[in-house]
Amino acid sequence: xxxxxxxxxxxxxxxxxxxxxxxxxxxxxxxxxxxxxxxxxxxxxxxxxxxxxxxxxxxxxxxxxxxxxxxxxxxxxxxxxxxxxxxxxxxxxxxxxxxxxxxxxxxxxxxxxxxxxxxxxxxxxxxxxxxxxxxxxxxxxxxxxxxxxxxxxxxxxxxxxxxxxxxxxxxxxxxxxxxxxxxxxxxxxxxxxxxxxxxxxxxxxxxxxxxxxxxxxxxxxxxxxxxxxxxxxxxxxxxxxxxxxxxxxxxxxxxxxxxxxxxxxxxxxxxxxxxxxxxxxxxxxxxxxxxxxxxxxxxxxxxxxxxxxxxxxxxxxxxxxxxxxxxxxxxxxxxxxxxxxxxxxxxxxxxxxxxxxxxxxxxxxxxxxxxxxxxxxxxxxxxxxxxxxxxxxxxxxxxxxxxxxxxxxxxxxxxxxxxxxxxxxxxxxxxxxxxxxxxxxxxxxxxxxxxxxxxxxxxxxxxxxxxxxxxxxxxxxxxxxxxxxxxxxxxxxxxxxxxxxxxxxxxxxxxxxxxxxxxxxxxxxxxxxxxxxxxxxxxxxxxxxxxxxxxxxxxxxxxxxxxxxxxxxxxxxxxxxxxxxxxxxxxxxxxxxxxxxxxxxxxxxxxxxxxxxxxxxxxxxxxxxxxxxxxxxxxxxxxxxxxxxxxxxxxxxxxxxxxxxxxxxxxxxxxxxxxxxxxxxxxxxxxxxxxxxxxxxxxxxxxxxxxxxxxxxxxxxxxxxxxxxxxxxxxxxxxxxxxxxxxxxxxxxxx
Length: 751
Known about the structure:
Keywords: Membrane, Transmembrane, Transmembrane helix. The chain crosses the membrane at residues 20-42, 273-300. This is Bifunctional diguanylate cyclase/phosphodiesterase. By secondary structure, the chain is α/β, with parallel strands linked by helices. The protein has 23 helices and 25 strands. The strands form five sheets. Strands 17-18-20-21-22-23-24-25 form an eight-stranded mixed barrel, surrounded by five helices. Strands 3-2-1-6-5-4 form a six-stranded antiparallel β-sheet, with helices on both faces. α12 (480-502) crosses α13 (539-549). The chain starts with a helix and ends with a helix.
């Protein structure tokens, strides 16, 4: 009996040993497979990264060729350029407005003007060179120049033939050609454009016009621009293939006979870097897993029954949200990973990220208890949606994620989103109150946007952010551009914080004229950001980011202080400064403005604050209180972009403004749509009846100016009359204020 027990014990021991060995072998095989898969995945990631960077580099090179047309067009498509080159060659003027201007502002290395008789003007590194000693690689650049001339003559012949046949004469457009080539043996980007007028026929179409040529060598400055744009490491231009450690693309020379050159850089190799970072952890985890498996085997039999009994309860506690009754985040991720395995071109999976709009206000005003009841109601509605294959889950807070199988048509995604949003919008009776909220949805689709669960949810969250920025209560499907905008927005925010202290910001002033277009009546202050690397960053890009990040108040107060300091001694001329609706959330806005005026000595009567209609919309008491305090100080109030938002006579009557600025969208449509002219006429009549002055902004044509004069608009501003100018350019307009005289508007001012 004892031997039998010993034999049984030994057999059990051997069985246990065999089980441990089997588990060890399985884990070893799994580790080997994991390592092999990691190596393969790293290689594929690296290859995908190299392919993507090749496309980015070639796209950047091709786009730079297109950018030359923009650089040259401002000079070539200008009547003054025709007069200064076709009729007589004014080399000093050409140098100031072409050669030196392109070098100083755009970094062009060489600039030429080629006439029918030969080279007429040359500039090297921003310095004018005599044409008889100027370096001009005729063998490389002459075919490009002749191509432009031939194309222009062909166009002129077509226009002449059309005119003879009775058609309305057409303008001759500039002809542009660009390409990569070797100039004096060095790789370079060369562009050429015919110099033709804006309007009218100033030069004979039977002659080849002067041709502007520019050269940008692919040198250190060119590579520096690449680093700033794409953040590549150690770029270089070589005439020999680079070594295997570097990634490279061929320079796309326009002529296949040109000796090749390569643009190379140090690749990122994200797959290999990730593998190096994770491999030690994976190996350590595998060892721990093996040890844990051995220990677990000793207790597996005894724990089996207990685990079976508690499995059902644990499953519910682990995968169901106790507040809403929906699947929780753990269940969502589990279901999402399971479904992602089965996705394909004909069986796609849509991930909807739902964020409730205004839920924080419910918590703040009615309490968290009411907020919890509202979340439970929303969860009940989502769980009751009669949509096939739908899984609704609470992701956290007031965020929900829904999964639904969809076909190849994106309209099905939009239809499901509409059903979800309609369910959210229905009024809910919570704690004796009727609550109405809306939701915003961002959606991603697998496999279109990827097959990794967390990444798909992250991209859907980005789409929600974009949807909220464009207007809540809607659905937006993710596009790669949204992610780039998020990254760009973060970078601009960080750079703007730095720019506020480093002097990169400047104030430009756009003159405002009486309706005859002659007398300057004031200036509008506009902030400009001259980034040391990226150049001029549009206010339309960094102002919204400043408003979202909370930097707008600091920025606006900086502009106001700088304007008061600079314009203090400009006589009685009025200065308009824009303030954001965010500024009026300050409890001490009026005190801050009063302190700035006192410290700078600027008269309040000369200051005009421009506000938008969004400030008045919503009947905010603090906004009206601040506006009243500003008016009591003697500051004028202007309602900017009138007609573009929530214009209301009620708001204007409740808080009387001094000036209405008609939105530029109406001005641009004068002569194109009948309703634009009718609306402008009504606005002017209304303003005159209320003794409010009217300013039209965005005036760009004489037709627009004549119409505004005819309806009795008081003041006008726009590029037709004057572009925004830096402080150094204000003096000539201040002279017009003093003399009441008119200054000619030159093309260089408009540029």
